[in-house]
Design goal:
The chain is α/β, with parallel strands linked by helices and about 300 residues long. It contains eleven helices and eleven strands. It has a domain of about 170 residues: NAD(P)-binding Rossmann-like Domain (Rossmann fold, 3-Layer(aba) Sandwich).
C-alpha cells in the first residue's frame, strides 16, 4: 500500500495517474476530496484531513508500507514549523506503523557550505534528517527551481512580456519540470528494492539562465519576453505586504540569495534521464496557460 500526500498539488496530481496505471493499492490524504478527479477518486482510498495532523496521518499509514511525502507551503509558519514541525507526527507514525520506504520532496544543496544558511532549503534538509532518523529507507528528491513556477506569472508574461526573479540574468542554474519529479517519484515508489538513505537529484536536461529562459520563451511563444531582476529587499517588502510570517519571508530571501550564489550547482549523475526540455514545456504547458479560455457569446 502506497500513501500519497498532497495529491492535488502540482506534483501529486501528476504522480497519481502514473501510480493508478499499475496494480498497486493506493491511499491519498487530502483536505478536500472534491478536488480529486473522478477518475482518480474511484481508484484510491481517501483519507480526509491534513497529513500534518497526528490522528489523520495515523489513520492514513495503517496497513501501508510506502509513503510519498510532500510538505505543503505555509507562509504563516516559521520555517521549522512549516517543515520539521509539520513532519514530526508522520515521522513518529512511520516507526509505529512499520513503514519501510519513503520518497520525499526536498531540495538541492546538501553538503555545500551555502546549505547552512539557505532559508527554506536549510529547513527542507533538516526535515530530510528527521525522516532518515526513523530508520526507513528514504529517498529525498533533491530539486532545483521548477519551470512551473512561471505559471504564477502568466498575467505578466501575457500582458507585459515580463517575468521576474532575483537571480543574476546571466547565471545558468538547473531547473526542472514538475512532471519529471512525479515520474522519478513513481519509479521509486513502484520498485521498492532500494535500501538505506540517499539523495536523488532531479534535474532538467541543461542549466539555463534567466536570459536563456527569456530567449526560449520568445521563440516558443512567438512574442517578446524579457527578464526583470527584482532586488531581495523588494521581494521581502512584497511578501511582508501579503502578511506572511516574517521568519518565513526571511527564509525565502535567504534561499534566493543562496541560489544566486550557486547553491544549486551540482554534477549531473550519469544515470539521470533526459528530462523535459524547457522549450517543450513552454510549448505544451506555458503557451496553453497564456491563452484565455474562450466563451460562447450566444
Amino acid at each position: 500500500m502506497i500513501v500519497i500526500t498532497a495529491p492535488t498539488g502540482n506534483i501529486g496530481r501528476r504522480l497519481l495517474p502514473l501510480l493508478t496505471a499499475h496494480d498497486e493499492p493506493l491511499r491519498v490524504v487530502v483536505r478536500d476530496p472534491a478536488r480529486l478527479p473522478d477518475t482518480i477518486r474511484d481508484r484510491v482510498e481517501v483519507i480526509t484531513g491534513s497529513h500534518g495532523d497526528p490522528t489523520t496521518i495515523d489513520r492514513a499509514l495503517t496497513g501501508a508500507d510506502a509513503v510519498f511525502w510532500l510538505v505543503p507551503p505555509d507562509g504563516s509558519l516559521t520555517p521549522d514549523q512549516a517543515y520539521s514541525g509539520f513532519t514530526r507526527p508522520a515521522a513518529h507514525a512511520f516507526t509505529t506503523h512499520g513503514i519501510t520506504h519513503v520518497v520525499g520532496v526536498s531540495a538541492l544543496g546538501r553538503g555545500t557550505p551555502l546549505a547552512d544558511h539557505a532559508g527554506l532549503v536549510t529547513a527542507s534538509l533538516a526535515m530530510d534528517n528527521l525522516i532518515a532518523a526513523t530508520g526507513v529507507a528514504y529517498r529525498a528528491l533533491a530539486n532545483p527551481s521548477f519551470y512551473d513556477n512561471l505559471l504564477e506569472e502568466t498575467d505578466s508574461i501575457r500582458d507585459h512580456g515580463v517575468f521576474t526573479d532575483t537571480t543574476d540574468p546571466d547565471r545558468p542554474t538547473p531547473l526542472v519540470a514538475v512532471a519529471d519529479i512525479a515520474a522519478t517519484a513513481a519509479t521509486l515508489l513502484l520498485d521498492r528494492s532500494w535500501t538505506g538513505v540517499d539523495t536523488v537529484p532531479v534535474l532538467g536536461p541543461r542549466d539555463l539562465s534567466p536570459n536563456d529562459l527569456a530567449r526560449i520563451m520568445t521563440e516558443e511563444l512567438g512574442r517578446p519576453v524579457r527578464y526583470h531582476r527584482e532586488t531581495l529587499d523588494d521581494l521581502r517588502t512584497t511578501m511582508l505586504g501579503h502578511g506572511l510570517n516574517a521568519e518565513f519571508v526571511e527564509a525565502v530571501v535567504n534561499m534566493k540569495r543562496a541560489k544566486d550564489r550557486s547553491l544549486d550547482a551540482t554534477t549531473r549523475p550519469p544515470h539521470a534521464g533526459p528530462g523535459t526540455e524547457f522549450a517543450h514545456w513552454c510549448a505544451h504547458t506555458l503557451k496553453p496557460a497564456l491563452t484565455p479560455e474562450t466563451t460562447d457569446a450566444h
